[in-house]
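User: Quick sanity check before I run a bigger batch. Here is a single chain. Can you write out its predicted 3D structure?
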Amino acid sequence: MSQIESLLVIMEKLRDPETGCPWDLGQTYKTIVPHTLEEVYEVVDAIENGDIADLRAELGDLLFQIVFYAQIGKERNEFDFKDVVEGINEKLISRHPHVFQVDGKQSTKKMTLAEQSSTWEMFKQKEREDKSKSNQTVSIMDNVPLAFPALTRAKKIQNRAAKVGFDWDNIEPVWAKLQEEVDEIHEAINGHMGQDKIEDELGDLLCVCVNLARHLDIDPEKALRRSNNKFERRFRYIEAKLALKEKTPEEASLEEMDALWDEAKKEE
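Assistant: Done. Predicted structure follows.
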């Protein structure tokens, strides 16, 4: 028995109605979702920390999530693990005609990274159209998951729009739009326009920041995670320095903590 087969058997036993685990038996597609998201972020965390042993363990946890969904699908006679694997195998082969034989033919053309990205998006658009055949209209915005982190989703939908020409040719108009949105949120706050209006304007500002990131070829989600890590690292420095003085942040003044923040920046 292969390791994958062993994992599938373990999952079946965990979901056995008579002898299985009560927690595992109580789960559904929807109840597992938060755990799946948590495992994805833990994989990312292990990669960013450069912890290979942790990465190996977290990838196992993520694989278990996939097996869990497949077991529930099997019990509901909807799909099983084999169907999941067959589906991704077919997708990868069909989207890489320059690597694999498709319909008995293999492209001999060497593709650049840009060409491959364009071809990949073309295949994805065709799949969206196939999925939407029952609908009256097909939008390029179809099937951008609502569950994505907001920054990631903003980048995805902006990239989709850019594919059909709805984008600025260079970064200069982005700067102008960024200043326009800063002015509008400033006006909303000073004009006491209400929390909903301020929230709208702040969202618009964040969207332009995502647009700026795209034009700089930077992943906004990664950039924000990096800033979060930097903030946390510097604040821990403040805490450590204050502890040497037998003080807590609550007992320190803002000026004192600001000075320590500047120290942390210089040390970096």
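Residues 39 and 224 are 20 Å apart (CA to CA).

User: Great, the batch can go ahead then.
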